[in-house]
Amino acid sequence: MENSSSTTPASFDQLNRDWYIDKAVQILVFIGGISAIVFIVGIFVFISKEGFGFLFGEFNFREFFFSPNWRPTSESKETFGILALIAGTASVTGLAMLIAIPFSLGTAIFIAEFSSGKTREVLKVTVELLAAIPSVVWGFIGLAIMNPIIIQTFNVPVGLNVLNAGVILGLMAAPIMTSIAEDALKAVPDRYREAAEAMGATRWQVIYKVVLPAAKNGLLGAVLLGVGRGFGETMAVLMATGHSINIPTSVFDSVRALTATIAAELGETAAGSPHYQALFTIGIFLFIVTFIINLIADLVVRGVRKG
Amino acid sequence: MSSRTILFIVFTLLATALLAACGGGEQRQVIQNKGSDTLVNVAQAWAEEYQVVNPAVVVAVSGGGSGTGIASLINGTVDIANASRAIKEKELKLARDNGQDPVQHVVGFDALAIYLHPDNPLDEISTEQLAEIYGDGGSYLNWSDLGVDVPGCQGQEIVVVSRQNNSGTYAYFREAVLGDADFKLGTRDMHGSKDVVDLVENTPCAIGYSGLAYATEHVKLPCVAQEIGGACTHPSVSTAVDGSYPIARPLFMYTNGQPTGFVGDYLNWILSDEGQCIILNKGYAPATEANCG
Description:
The complex is a heterodimer. Chain A is mainly α. Chain A folds into two domains: 2-57; 83-301, MetI-like fold. Chain A has helices at 17-55, 61-66, 83-114, 117-131, 135-154, 162-186, 190-198, 203-214, 216-232, 235-240, 258-265, 274-306, and strands spanning 70-71, 79-80. A two-stranded antiparallel ribbon of chain A has the order 1-2. The longest helix of chain A has 39 residues, at 17-55. The radius of gyration of chain A is 25 Å and the shape is globular. The mean pLDDT of chain A is 87. Chain B has helices spanning 2-23, 37-53, 66-75, 89-97, 127-134, 168-178, 193-202, 237-241, 261-270, 273-281, and strands spanning 29-35, 57-62, 80-83, 102-116, 124-126, 159-163, 188-190, 206-211, 223-225, 232-233, 248-256, 285-286. Chain B has two domains: 3-109 and 251-286, D-Maltodextrin-Binding Protein, domain 2, CATH 3.40.190; 111-242, D-Maltodextrin-Binding Protein, domain 2, CATH 3.40.190.10. Chain B is globular and about 65 Å long. In chain B, strands 1, 2, 3, 4, 6, 7, 8, 11 and 12 form a nine-stranded mixed beta sheet that branches. In chain B, strands 5-9-10 form a three-stranded mixed beta sheet. In chain B, β6, α6 (168-178) and β7 (188-190) form a beta-alpha-beta unit. Classes of the chains: A mainly alpha, B alpha/beta. At the A-B interface, β1 and α5 of A face α3, α6, β7 and α7 of B.
């Protein structure tokens, strides 16, 4: 073992200590690299396994997707319809995107195109800080602050509704959307801007006519990731929506989200019961939807990198 | 809320770890106690007080809900399960199949109070009216159906506040008020007794139900009658004890078989005057005629 120099390339051809270290590190890095795939497959297999009993037993496609009657603990007749829950998740996510898209695109354009130096650094750090606020804190803001404000401002019976959760979720999704949108804008080569300015375009024209179209894939990716974030968010929507099984007809209606239903009910459900398996079936559904959204977002963002 | 449950788990874990570390060679008995969120505050107080009575026994308390506690008893991971509802036939069968023999002990009573916003002029309500408000197909949608006009409540719509569908409180309220019927869809299903009170406090249009122990000075508790116009009873510890309050429920502890040894001693102490005065102090009714001076 004495004096086996690790710097000589020749040592890698021999089965000495350096060779083993090299091999071990290689294997570790490989495991790290594929671990994400292993985990995602593992999670999918796990939730599928738990949900399959329901899928092949009590599962009734029409009832599950087209009935708003979610009564898993009924004494007379248990029903498992998630239509109202899908409507709840969709309405809250939709409103959140209506709020988050202008906010995050505006912030991203300002940071990337207009600000510089200190302003830019402060803004970037602040936006990232916003992303670090725990979702239970957002939920608490919805419950304790937004609820009375909405009741008073809009003269409605209750402030825990689509509007409340949509605003909260919009603010939660905005930071990550801003970061990705800003990256997309930064990725547009400066020569595009210079060429446009050389032709006499104003700053607004440069952004509107040149930079935004060039960055559109990245911006679309940012929006889709925001949608995925909204779909998967649990704690804040549990607290701010009112958690009420209801197909909303206005933004002032209380609703209930798919994720919040799992969070609220799974803890006290007997393992292996139809209710438990139905909750896992919702999990499978959520997994597939967010997987598709993230996949599309990824493909879209990849598109801009190549082009 | 679950954050409180987590806090309890962390606390008890830390406490047991600490005690185990300090105990040295001394033999310590640990009682695992888990279940109902309604009972968790009391169970914690009992556990702390029992440390003084018998330092050789450590009681580790955690919440999670009646269903969780009973499930743990079925799996044989706890010595005592707390429940704010009686064990179900299904659960009993499951337990027997697993070689367990759940034995029920009534440790106290809880009056399920109806909560209203303080501005609500309604002073009494009957269980029939509650069924119209909460039950599937019930006809009451507005406060005018109850003959009142609630100031500050836009549109006079009744905002119905309920609990998540596997809480013991939810199950008991359904049994006591709705019978076999289901709850209406569209109720706001809160995730804890305290959350119900918080929401009602901030919402003039709201009505909710929760344990009496969660009452604050910012809510109103109407008196409850069996039928419209019937004699109505205010929720209190004494009306829960004498059975005159219509929606009061027993609180249970379940053990595997008749408890013996240190678990038996603990249960006997809970049912003693000392233990029963603790539950009274927490706002519940004692199971026995306790003399608390």
